[in-house]
Amino acid sequence: MRPMAKKTLQLGRAVAWPDSPDKAVLDRVPNPQGGTDYLVRFAIPEFTSVCPITGQPDFAHLVIDYVPGRWLLESKSLKLYAASFRNHGAFHEDCTVTIGKRIAGEIKPKWLRIGGYWYPRGGIPIDVFFQTGRLPKGIWVPDQGVATYRGRG
């Protein structure tokens, strides 16, 4: 894990879109409120990947909640990382858990959860959830706000 150095951040400069999740870089920045526990939420309502079998597109609404420790996840790098899945073939479960583990490995949060709310293909929506760490006492964690799939009902 590399320490934060302004010249290495993707923020504030043009960078090429990564063509795979393995080539994407997640940047972290120091947490200016390191002595305070609080919740950070990222929503990615238009996440896309492809089915590893058919090559057809898959779509999801991802919600990432975390309680930072020493580091914050830099949002531009998250956008580039999420976009790197556009041509990546993986099942819904793999995409969701891979993203959660990668973020947790980079920023070492006190607690992290990701909800992957996948749109139906073949008539079956799949929701995938991953969590790691311990939620500090007293942290308010709102509902992720993504309705379960109801179809035309």
Largest sheet entry: 4 strands, antiparallel
| Uncertain ranges | none
Largest sheet, spatial ordering of strands: 2-3-5-6
Mean pLDDT: 92
- Fraction of helical residues: 10-25%
Name of the top-level CATH class? Alpha Beta
CATH superfamily grouping: GTP cyclohydrolase I, C-terminal domain/NADPH-dependent 7-cyano-7-deazaguanine reductase, N-terminal domain
Structural class: alpha+beta
Round the Cα radius of gyration to an integer and report it. Answer: 16 Å
Could you say how many structural domains there are in total? 1
Name given to the CATH architecture: 2-Layer Sandwich
How large is the share of residues in beta strands? 25-35%
**What global shape is seen?**
globular
Q: Care to count the β-strands?
A: 6
Element order: H for helix, E for strand:
EEEEHHEE
The CATH topology is GTP Cyclohydrolase I, domain 2
Q: Please, how many helices?
A: 2
Q: What is the terminal-to-terminal distance?
A: 47 Å
Main location: cytoplasm
GO cellular component, one term: cytoplasm
Organism: Bradyrhizobium pachyrhizi
Active site: 51 (thioimide intermediate), 58 (proton donor)
